[in-house]
Specification:
Layout (H helix, E strand, L loop, with lengths): L1 E8 L9 H9 L9 E5 L7 H5 L1 E10 L8 E5 L15 H12 L4 E8 L11 H20 L4
Parallel strand pairs: 1-2, 1-3, 3-5
Antiparallel strand pairs: 4-5
Helix pairs in contact: 1-4
């Protein structure tokens, strides 16, 4: 079983909605994530359940539209729930973790690390607030994985 899985997700063509995508790309060159699988996706899909089920801990990185100042970082645990959308190509974190439990018998400890976005307009570039949050996102993800090495 691998130590951890980080899934950065969001629409990389909608400015700050792509913060998870940008974070995952940044983690690829960060030595703190050398023994962690890091993937970037446009959205969460049922196919990710097999990867989730083989991890001790999962951190999902995404943008949020409200709940703080632009660039603010939030950390929230994910509670698995039965997935109502097994046949859909879109899932939420709770459904994905629940699907891993249903199909593969393992629901790892999981968290969402989110960044409050400023702009969700068309474009590949993050706002200055979201871009400035990326080092803090990396620190939070590394902290979660190090505090829960056997989760």
């Amino acid at each position: 079983m691998k130590r951890g899985l980080v899934i950065g997700y969001g629409n990389s063509l909608r400015a700050d909605d792509g913060v998870g995508w940008h974070a995952a790309m940044r983690f690829a060159s960060d030595a703190r994530f050398a023994d962690v699988d890091v993937v970037a996706r446009q959205q969460l899909t049922p196919e990710l359940a097999v990867d989730v089920s083989s991890a001790r801990a999962v951190v999902l990185v995404d943008a949020r539209m409200s709940g703080g100042a632009p660039g603010s970082i939030g950390v929230h645990p994910v509670t698995p729930r039965a997935s109502a959308s097994k046949m859909s190509h879109h899932m939420d974190p709770s459904g994905l973790i629940g699907l891993a439990q249903e199909l593969y018998g393992h629901a790892p400890s999981a968290w969402v690390v989110s960044v409050c976005g400023e702009s969700f307009e068309e474009g590949e570039k993050l706002s200055s607030a979201a871009a400035a949050a990326l080092p803090g996102v990396a620190d939070e993800v590394a902290r979660l994985l190090s505090e829960h090495p056997n989760a």
